[in-house]
Amino acid sequence: MGEKILEQESELSKPTLALIICNLGNLSLLQGNFKVSRGYFEKSLKIGREIDDNPAIANSLIGLGSISVFQGDIHNALVYYQECLEISRAMNEKRGTAMCLNNLGMVAIHQNEYEKAKDYYEESLAIYREIGLKSQLANPLHNLGLIAENIGEFEQAEKYYKESLALNRESGSKRGIANTLLNLGLVSHNRGNYDMAQNLLEECGAMHRELEDKLGIGFYNYGLGMVYSSRAKYDEALKFFEVSIAIRKEIGDKSGIINSLNHLGVVYLLTNNIDKARSCIEQSHSCNTELGDEWATSVSLVVLAGVEIAENNFEQAASMTGIAESKLKSLSRVWEKGIEILATQNAVKLRETLGDDEFRKHYEAGTNMTTEEVVELAGLNNVK
What we know:
Layout: H1 2-6, H2 14-30, H3 34-50, H4 54-70, H5 74-90, H6 94-110, H7 114-130, H8 138-150, H9 154-171, H10 174-190, H11 194-211, H12 214-230, H13 234-251, H14 254-270, H15 274-291, H16 294-310, H17 314-331, H18 337-354, H19 356-367, H20 371-377
Helix pairs in contact: 2-3, 2-4, 3-4, 4-5, 4-6, 5-6, 6-7, 6-8, 7-8, 8-9, 8-10, 9-10, 10-11, 10-12, 11-12, 12-13, 12-14, 13-14, 14-15, 14-16, 15-16, 16-17, 16-18, 17-18, 17-19, 18-19
């Protein structure tokens, strides 16, 4: 369809052409085709700049920023969104301003700057309320739920998500409904309500498949993998994590790949496939070298500590536990339920094996290590 439209490029005015190409970018983005989507947005941005069409420039920048967030390129996402915000404010375009603020909040979440993110979302909400766009309130409310979820305030997160879900149902936004069901499922999992989590995730998965949303399908498989892992149904968990990795690799969701690999490593560890567990963490580390996601690093270290315990390297495991928990504390975040349980089990085993004093000594040594020292300790420095 896009190719047929672009065949008529010479017959279209440049503002019309920029709008059509940007819309094709949005369609590809919603389907998880990031490479194709980026090409469209870059072309519409170029045309917009050539003709000084600020709306075309702003819409293209939002699209490029969204792709950057999904692919873990937070620096460029920030650049795109900030320019878009400046343009929207200069045009006094309040809806665009609110959208940019909402997106800047997502960047702040990725940077673990939760107070800044909250400020962005609340400003976005205020603008949407001012201009009477009730249907748009769902996005910032959803993202306020994400902040609460990340810092472990699950009851508050659930309230935000349910409010967002009601607004999405009222407006008929299938994508909004699916995304909110996903996060309600993840919150239910973290609260130990596995039946509800599975039901919510299966409902959201059906909607994402209907929408042909590859990003959402990847998240759905990841979420169900965690539920099945928590239920000790490891064969099913493996299948879902492997599917999520395949989809996330296909669309270039680097952050998602890292998270799925970490949890796949947990399943292999719990089924005593120690070499495969280590391999998952090595792959996760290699992928994370570019992104530098400290929270994902802390998760990897928890899994790797479990691997070291299985291989009787107890002192190394204690140091890894120390640095993992130190990183987590500095980020003001919590781990997902399966990782939290594994970290607790690791600490219990290490105290039983080393004794409290010896465990504490190596644990404290870990908290004082740099990431580079931990990577060397873990034998990950030669992993490519």
